[in-house]
Amino acid sequence: QVSRTDPDSRSMTKAGGGTEVGYNVQAAVDGEHHLIVAHEVTNEPTDRAQLSSMAEQAKTAVRGEEKELATESEDEDQGHEAFTVVADAGYYKGEEIVACQDRGITPLVPKADTSGKRTKGQFTREAFRYDAEHNVYRCPAGQSLPYSFSTKEQGKLLHVYMTNRCQGCDLKAKCTTGKERRIRRWEHEHRLEAAAAALKKQPDAMRLRKQIVEHPFGTIKHWMGATHFVMKRLENVQAEMSLYVLGYNLKRAIAVLGMPKLMAALEAA
Predict the structure, then answer these.
(1) Which residues contact 38 (CB under 8 A, 6 or more apart)?
(2) 185, containing H or E segment
(3) Which three-class secondary structure state does DSSP give residue 254?
(4) Are 82 and 76 in contact (CB under 8 A)?
(5) 166-171: which pairs have CB atoms within 8 A and are 24 or more residues apart?
(6) Integer Rg of the chain from CA
(7) DSSP code of 216?
(8) In CA terms, which of 1, 29, 57, 247 is 20 to 30 Å from 83?
(9) What is the DSSP track for 23-90?
(10) Under a CB-based contact definition with an 8 Å cutoff, are residues 37 and 58 in contact?
(11) Per-residue pLDDT for the chain (269 aa), expressed as one digit of tens each?
């Protein structure tokens, strides 16, 4: 991509559809006071590779630097609450989910259905249940898809499960147009399933996410006006956004603490 106005800017997909040339602003907001604890400006067109980086920055800002990355259970053993990050479906990527877990962070991120099978009236992957005890998948017709072989795709180790009983199945038209239905299972799939189960236990997480993170974004965009960023080049836009975040956090701290307490805290720092 080449922008003759700003060489660092890129074409971004807008939430309501369409595209716009600009930058991708990331922000992590604490759920209690709605303060922006970490932010970053990138020219990456999607959010899929941003989750673990922003989550780690947020954890460091809230908890401070840690000599060793602890698992969630280790955090609890040391008297710390588990650190949870909530993000929308645009952030879902298996590698990012696992990277968060490796850093002692619990990611609550819904997985978007991008296969297109649902719109065709066919069974999605979620219709097949994994039986860990027997290492097979169970299809909607009740048949088993046993492990067949393993392969590597884009550096990921995948285990393939399949069956040759599809030809005579009454549900074949709703399942696959091929000779057999195959299910690929990533070696870390069980960790993604654990993350999905954690999200399912908190059905209000996505509603609360909107209330938390959209609040600062809406406020700052209101301050910016219709033109939003006035600077050009990534480094300058990063500085501009940092000033907006500083101003927002100061006004928010005044609203939460009041000026006397805030001044006292600043003088004691």
Answers:
(1) 26, 27, 28, 54, 57, 58, 60, 61
(2) strand 182-186
(3) helix
(4) yes
(5) 169/141, 169/143, 170/141, 171/123, 171/139, 171/140, 171/141
(6) 23
(7) H
(8) 247
(9) -EEEEEE-TTT--EEEEEEE--S-STT-HHHHHHHHHHHHH---SSPPPHHHHHHTTPPPEEEE--GG
(10) yes
(11) 888 999 999 999 877 778 889 999 999 999 999 999 999 999 999 999 999 999 999 999 998 754 333 333 334 344 456 799 999 999 999 999 999 999 999 999 999 877 778 888 889 999 999 999 999 999 999 999 999 999 999 999 999 999 888 888 999 989 988 888 999 999 999 999 999 999 999 999 999 999 999 989 999 999 988 878 999 999 999 999 999 999 999 999 999 999 999 999 989 98
Q: How many CB atoms lie within 10 A of CB 92?
A: 20
Please state, in angstroms and rounded to a whole number, the distance separating the CA atoms of residues 225 and 3: 23
Sign of CA dihedral 72, 101, 106, 147: negative
pTM of the model: 0.86
* DSSP β-ladder status, 83-86 and 105-108: parallel
Residue 185 φ then ψ, to 5°: -120, 120
Rounded distance, CA 59 to CA 38, Å? Answer: 9
Note whether 119 and 70 are within 8 A (CB).
no
Which among 161, 153, 114 is positioned nearest to 135, based on CA atoms?
Answer: 161
**Alpha carbon distance 142, 83 (integer Å):** 39
Q: What is the spatial distance between Cα 180 and Cα 70, in angstroms, rounded to a whole number?
A: 43
The encoded tokens of residue 84 equal: 């949870």
